[in-house]
Specification:
Length: 663
């Protein structure tokens, strides 16, 4: 265990003191612009040999933007970093191709000219596209993958998809791309010095991904037309034909399947899979043999909590599996590494989520990303042999712990005696405060103790923010998730209401100034809250929310009544035939006349998860019932992941709308 005294003796930088110095000024809550402003640290990566850390950064001064990399020597992280300029580019990710070369992912937009090699010659692009640059450690010009091959990038929105870094072939990587004139995705072995690729495999119409073992493509995913489900195929190194493995639901931001492959195992034909299996309650990490279609031993589990993901090193060795209590936690393969992790958490005051980003091949150095309510992000290097933690780069240094709101985990006892977890974001203001209730999306995801843009934005206005993990949320095992199935509009809403009642009973919130705001399922919960509790909520905001359950189920029928995604939503929401009356009663659109609070509806026109028709129908129903409402549609916007300018516009609208109602 690393005590604070031992940490200082070992030469660690005292993070609490460093943060305190940043927050020495008066703790003024951040502006919306400061919260939404893009981070200066975009990402970080540890070289395979563990000797260097690459920090991808972006500097903006007015309209001038410069992306660059800071190269830090792991042996002396305090020494001035070496700067490698990338250029005036929108960068979003970084990784090492090998110990001498970096891979940087960029977005090129319609109004940008970019000449990484002679092959582009300043040609203007007609759309926003993703590309991959190979960058040396000097200041030589970067090389864009496939740019030297005529026509290869012309029809690819995403020309930067890396399938395998090929650690045993450091001069090459595997990438997926549509070649000229082909509707089938192909796999290429790409030279990281020249950017030229050689085809090694060809998919079929619908192929969107491969996974390798030992550098060989052995798994392939073929999607349905809507991108909601896929067929998984296996082809062993000695096989000539692909063999069907299973049909599966695809993971999204709002949907986590019961079978998810997270990496290849050292065992030939075996892969690490996060699964609940046939009878399991909580998701665990297991090996799954693609040759025999059987599960092996459980690799990692945490009773009562779902394993979310796993860190697998570049030699396919299992390092740790993640889950969430309040903060991010891990099950480690090596007990010694677990002890080091507990020391890091203690040193950071147990106020941060300590995320494992990467580990060196010899397992002596860890790259971590810390984040929490009081800090957007901080990348650190941890040296196991020296037991030394070195802070490297803050993501948003202008957001200081003293100015950001704190978060308090709380247990809520519901009306039927069940205990659920909730999180209360507390502004730096005294007295009973207005309360904004923020049910999460999904619904089978969960909230936790972490930095949250909307919670911090609302808290900066002096409002409490409540985020309950109602039944039906993810992360707590199958039984907790299933407790919400068939209970949209009743039990799940009751859990939210019971959490609100507990906060109001504490005297910390003003019962006359309560509003509700959510996105996706959370948008549905906000609308349904306004229906069920018109006397409680002074305003409701639905962002990309569902308003009519029979209609959303009808949308999901496009893949067929027997499709996995349709059957999933029938199980979660209800059967449109046998549950017709309940579904109608649980649809806010059909009960618009019962709403008293003003309603703000926000929806992206290009949303493929929840169609904008859901908000349009709700707006029409509210108008027909003579209710106060506003519908804002966003051009070139999907379900989430909006550009900072659009996110800022949405936040300003939400704050203005809530501010008027909660005044």
């Amino acid at each position: 265990m690393i005590t604070r005294r031992a940490a200082l003796a070992a030469g660690m930088v005292p993070l609490v003191l460093a943060n305190a110095s940043l927050a020495a000024d008066a703790p003024v809550p951040p502006s919306l612009e400061a919260l939404v402003r893009s981070p200066t640290t975009i990402g970080a990566a540890l070289s395979p040999d563990g000797e260097q850390i690459a920090i991808l950064r972006e500097q903006r001064e007015g309209d001038v933007r410069v992306a660059y990399v800071h190269l830090i020597r792991a042996a002396d992280p305090k020494a001035p970093p070496r700067r490698v300029v990338v250029g005036d580019l929108d960068v979003y990710a970084i990784q090492w191709a090998n110990n001498e070369r970096l891979l940087i992912s960029v977005v090129l937009k319609a109004d940008e000219d970019y000449v990484p090699t002679g092959s582009f010659m300043g040609r203007k692009l007609n759309m926003s596209v993703r590309r991959l640059l190979s960058v040396g450690l000097g200041n030589e010009p970067p090389v864009m993958m496939f740019a030297a091959q005529k026509g290869y990038l012309r029809y690819n929105f995403d020309g930067g998809r890396v399938i395998d870094l090929l650690p045993d072939d450091p001069g090459h990587i595997l990438m997926a791309l549509y070649p000229p004139g082909s509707e089938a995705l192909c796999l290429y072995r790409v030279d990281v010095l020249t950017g030229e690729g050689t085809q090694v495999d060809r998919g079929v119409s619908g192929t969107f991904h491969w996974m390798t073992q030992g550098g060989k493509p052995v798994l392939r995913w073929d999607s349905n037309n809507r991108g909601t489900a896929a067929m998984l195929y296996w082809r062993g190194p000695q096989d000539t034909a692909w063999k069907f493995v299973r049909r599966m639901i695809l993971k999204t931001e709002w949907l986590k399947p019961d079978f998810e492959i997270v990496g290849a195992s050292p065992t030939p034909g075996a892969f690490y899979v996060v699964t609940r299996g046939d009878t399991g309650q909580a998701a665990v990490l297991r090996e799954f043999d693609m040759r025999t279609l059987t599960y092996g031993a459980t690799v990692a589990e945490r009773p009562g909590r779902d394993i979310e993901d796993a860190l697998i090193d570049d030699q396919r060795r299992f390092v740790a599996a993640s889950y969430v209590e309040d903060r991010l936690a891990y099950v480690f393969a090596d007990p010694a590494l677990a002890s080091h992790f507990r020391g890091i958490e203690a040193f950071l005051g147990r106020k941060q989520n300590v995320g494992l980003v990467d580990i060196s091949r010899d397992h002596n150095r860890l790259l971590i990303r810390a984040s929490g309510p009081g800090m957007y992000s901080l990348y650190c290097l941890y040296d196991l042999a020296a037991r030394k933690l070195s802070p490297l780069s803050l993501g948003k240094p202008w957001l200081t712990e003293g100015a950001l709101a704190t978060v308090e985990p709380m247990d809520v006892t519901t009306r039927d005696g069940t205990t659920i977890r909730a999180y209360l974001t507390v502004p730096r203001a005294a007295g009973p405060r207005p309360l904004v209730v923020m049910p999460h999306g999904g619904p089978e995801v969960r909230d936790g103790y972490d930095y949250d843009l909307y919670a911090q934005a609302f808290a900066a206005q002096g409002w409490l923010v409540l985020k309950p993990n109602f039944r039906g949320s993810g992360g707590y095992g199958r039984a907790f998730a299933q407790a919400g199935e068939g209970h949209w509009g009743d039990r799940m809403q009751e859990d939210v209401e019971d959490a609100v009642a507990q906060v109001l009973a504490s005297g910390r919130a003003d019962p006359k100034r309560v509003a509700i705001c959510g996105a996706s399922y959370g948008g549905y919960a906000a609308l349904m809250g306004a229906v069920r509790r018109p006397e409680l909520y002074r305003a409701a905001i639905s962002i990309a929310g569902v308003s009519d359950l029979p209609e959303i189920l009808e949308d999901e029928r496009q893949d067929g009544l027997d499709s996995p995604i349709y059957q999933l939503w029938v199980r979660r929401i209800g059967d449109p035939k046998t549950d017709a009356a309940r579904l109608a009663a649980a649809s806010p659109r059909r009960r618009a006349a019962e709403i008293k609070a003003p309603v703000l509806l926000i929806h992206g026109l290009d949303d493929t998860v929840v169609a904008v028709a859901q908000s349009r129908m709700m707006a029409q129903a509210l108008k027909g019932a003579g209710k106060s409402s506003e519908l804002v549609t966003l051009r070139d916007a999907g379900h989430s992941g909006w550009e900072p300018e659009m996110e800022l516009d949405v936040l300003k609208r939400c704050v203005a709308f809530l501010g008027k109602a909660l005044a």
